[in-house]
Design brief:
- Chain A has about 150 residues and is α+β, with helices and mostly antiparallel strands.
- Chain A is built from four helices and four strands; from the N terminus they run βααααβββ.
- A four-stranded antiparallel beta sheet of chain A has the order 1-2-3-4.
- Chain B is an alpha/beta fold and about 280 residues long.
- Chain B has one domain: 3-Layer(aba) Sandwich (Rossmann fold).
- Chain B has eight helices and seven strands; from the N terminus they run H-H-E-H-H-E-H-E-E-H-H-E-H-E-E.
- In chain B, strand 2, helix 5 and strand 3 form a beta-alpha-beta unit.
- The longest helix of chain B has 20 residues.
- The chains are: A alpha+beta (about 150), B alpha/beta (about 280).
- At the A-B interface, helix 1 and strand 4 of A face strand 2, helix 5 and strand 3 of B.
- The complex binds zinc ion.
- The site of zinc ion has 8 residues of chain A, from loops.
């Protein structure tokens, strides 16, 4: 399970969905492993708009990653780009605000290459623990917690 | 025709194998009609500056089984969505299916990248989408609201006396001691896992209805899309009429059919989307 996944998850208990405490789920006893995904800045740039940055910072801190910047890197081009210049000019003027490469590479490693192999995720609202075994998290609830 | 992912590692005794319904979903998702729709809906707009990020679509398959559909969509992201940077998630109540799906998706994407002409050969994530996780879960229950751009569901649609219980232990894949009692127990468990993949309760609609209830919550509020397979006994016209009546601007259309028997389509695929 890639670290980025937890940014799209919440507690499976229906009553928790409306509580801000149910997101993000908190990792406990997480065993991590690295996979090798080719660094692809354009892929990463399109993923970042999907990321809830405050939640990512919580997750990163819990897993011991200290390099996540406090603000989401600004990837938007300068507003003047709205009237589209010729391709060559676009190349020259296209990198005004781009986050620096080191930050992007660290995010690539954290979001896309780091996998949680064993451990659990805990809901901050109800305290339910979701186990992760062999990289697969189990969100099936015992029958008393219902669907 | 895009190639069908290999699922030769899938154990047919406990995981639903690719069948007519799975292939209808593959054909529909890769049809000109649907790829045009998805490219238009999620494509990187040509009029924008090449520098502006366009958010990657997140695809969730519910009840992945062998993983053949999720693997197909992830590996062929560029052909289907017009962009390779698709993030894939899968859920299943069956832990064996979660494991198998992970393998199916990873090996399909790796094979896809490897088989490209050497000049074009690129790593996964450059030429294919990326699998985030397969999750043991009931439908989309752990997915945060509004996160899913495309949801795909090949449901248990066969009418049956009831729907098997999803017990927590469907995910317990510990190897049991090899004696007669545990062999009988694991046979019983495997039968139940298979039944979960096709038994749909009254009209075959019990599981489909639970998913439809979750759908408006789970899908992206501006442009979420869902593909759901139905059979004739599910009475697709009634289901579509109910979706028309949902609050908000929802659309629904039949976008794939097969098994035409005496004028009746046996299976169809409906696309539900937010306009
Ligand atoms: Zn909870």
């Amino acid at each position: 399970m890639k670290i980025l996944t937890v940014n799209f998850l919440t507690c499976a208990v229906k009553a928790c969905k409306t509580s801000p405490l149910s997101f993000p789920l908190h990792f406990r006893d997480a065993e991590l492993e690295q996979s090798d995904i080719g660094y692809n800045p354009s892929f990463l740039r399109n993923i970042l708009p999907r990321v809830d940055w405050e939640a990512l910072k919580v997750t990163a801190t819990e897993l011991g990653f200290t390099t996540v910047p406090s603000e989401k890197p600004n990837l938007d081009p300068a507003p003047s780009n709205t009237d589209l210049p010729a391709p060559e000019t676009a190349m020259e003027t296209s990198e005004p605000d781009v986050a620096d490469e080191k930050v992007m590479r660290d995010l690539h490693t954290l979001l896309l290459e780091t996998e949680v192999r064993e451990g659990k995720m805990v809901c901050g609202n109800c305290g339910h623990e979701y186990k992760i075994k062999e990289g697969i998290a189990n969100f099936l609830l015992p029958s008393h917690l219902g669907r | 025709m895009l190639p069908t992912p290999s699922t030769s590692h899938v154990d047919p005794n406990r995981i639903y194998e690719p069948a007519e319904d799975s292939y209808l979903l593959l054909d529909t998702l890769s049809s000109t009609n649907e790829t045009n729709f998805l490219k238009h809906h999620f494509g990187q707009s040509g009029t924008q500056s090449r520098n502006a990020p366009t958010p990657s679509p997140i695809v969730l398959e519910v009840g992945t089984g062998s993983g053949v559909i999720l693997a197909f969509v992830t590996a062929n992201a560029e052909a289907i969505f017009g962009r390779p940077d698709v993030l894939a998630l899968g859920t299943d109540v069956n832990n064996f299916a979660c494991q198998a799906t992970k393998q199916t998706v990873l090996q399909t994407c790796e094979g896809f990248a490897r088989d490209m002409p050497s000049g074009l050969r690129r790593s996964p994530s450059e030429s294919t989408g990326l699998l985030l996780a397969t999750l043991g879960a009931d439908l989309a229950s752990p997915i945060r609201g509004g996160m899913i751009d495309v949801l795909i569901f090949n449901p248990p649609y066969v009418p049956s006396a009831g729907v098997p219980d999803i017990k927590g232990n469907t995910l317990d894949s510990e190897p049991a001691p090899d004696d007669a009692k545990s062999r009988a127990e694991s046979y019983e468990r495997d039968s139940r896992l298979l039944a979960l993949s096709y038994e749909g309760g009254v009209d075959g609609m019990e599981v489909i209805n639970r998913l439809l209830e979750q759908l408006p919550q789970v899908l992206n509020r501006d442009k979420g899309v869902a593909y759901i397979l139905l059979c004739q006994q599910n009475r697709p016209e009634e289901t579509m009429q109910r979706i028309y009546n949902w609050v908000g601007d929802w659309y629904v259309e039949v976008v794939g059919r097969s098994g035409n028997v005496a004028g009746w389509e046996k299976l169809c695929i409906i696309r539900i989307w937010k306009g």
